[in-house]
Amino acid sequence: MWRGVIEQYREHLPVTADTPVVTLREGNTPLIPADTLAREIGPDAEVYFKFEGLNPTASFKDRGMTMAVSKALEEGTSAVMCASTGNTSASAAAYASRCGLDCLVIIPEGNIALGKLAQALMHGAKVFAVRGNFDDALRMVREISARYRITLVNSVNPFRIEGQKTGAFEICDALGEPPDYHFIPVGNAGNITAYWKGYTEYHAAGRIDRLPRMMGWQAEGAAPIVRGHVVEKPETLATAIRIGNPASWKQAEAARDASGGMIGMVSDADIIAAYQYMARHEGVFTEPACAACVAGLMRLIREGYFRNAVPAVSGPAGKTARKLRIVCILTGHGLKDPDNALKSSGRPMVIDPTIEAVLEHVPLAPRA
Ligand code: F0G
Q1: Nearest atom within ligand 1 for CA of residue 287
Q2: Residue 368, pLDDT score
Q3: What is the pLDDT of residues 80-104, one digit of tens each?
Q4: Which of the residues 113, 148, 183, 299 has the least number of beta carbons within 10 Å of its own beta carbon?
Q5: What is the largest distance, in Å, between two alpha-carbon atoms of the chain?
Q6: Sheet containing strand 181-185, strands side by side
Q7: Low-confidence ranges of the chain (pLDDT < 50)
Q8: Are 37 and 283 in contact (CB under 8 A)?
Q9: Dist CA 264 CA 12 (whole Å)
């Protein structure tokens, strides 16, 4: 039986026999082959979606939250707190509810997907909607947790990163090797930091013999790392990554540079196109933020970026060439954000309860 990421990767995590493990059996998410997308690169490429939306609270945050909440409990705290664009608050609220901790969350008013808000409230968190953005909320919770007895569970809490690095372990364990390219959306930049830590630790432990290139993607209206300066008023319909001053900015740049990767940006139109493409051609429904990294991949494919990459991963002469492998981290489930889904896909046709009414819209051939 899968027992969650702490039990699965205990020897790689800062836990002891005394750590009270708070888990919803997170992790063990599938690598779904994205064959339609892979064909656009060529026959020697494989693309996988690591669908983190299949975690217990439907986002990747659960990997970090099982660690952060377990360690908070071990340290004897009575409450946890976070700023959030939605997913962190949903996850914090769920894990806190499981072990009797109070949970306080600060979210940007009007800029959080409906499903995420419902989750935090259902799990009994005290939810404050601030007249400001995520960056304002993060500033507030950092100050509050520095002055008062409450544990901060944003990704500035190192245990969050520790838990989230298990995503990299799972990918390497499933593929038997690291991917060549790791595509990931970037908001507060904790997750790209965590994946890079996971890959480099597996490498140091001799579990893998090379490292992937880290390919991070921001939304154009919220792309401080790409632009090289803080964005005072970040804007994007991908509200999960609507962040102008990421806490792990430096670590994300370090991952990019050490891996020979890149951090790029895509427009909201590109994000919607990728969001629809995944749903209609790969059968995978994510929230818009995840589509940022797929939009980045689609753009690089169009630009011919991978044209010379396949020979580059071929083995030495005489050995079988291996396929180019790309993994995209799909960080959250599409059901979190029904508003954007309905906006980009239209509404059902309202009809009278007759067969003719259906046939008027869809001309079906009669059975012989
Ligand atoms: N994708 C989703 C669905 C997210 O919710 C987030 C961040 C990211 C990507 C970016 O990850 O911040 O580690 O670079 N959500 C945070 C939150 C900010 O509050 O839920 P990151």
Answers
A1: 3
A2: 87
A3: 999 999 999 999 999 999 999 999 9
A4: 148
A5: 77
A6: 31-33, 45-51, 324-330, 181-185, 213-219, 262-266
A7: none
A8: no
A9: 31
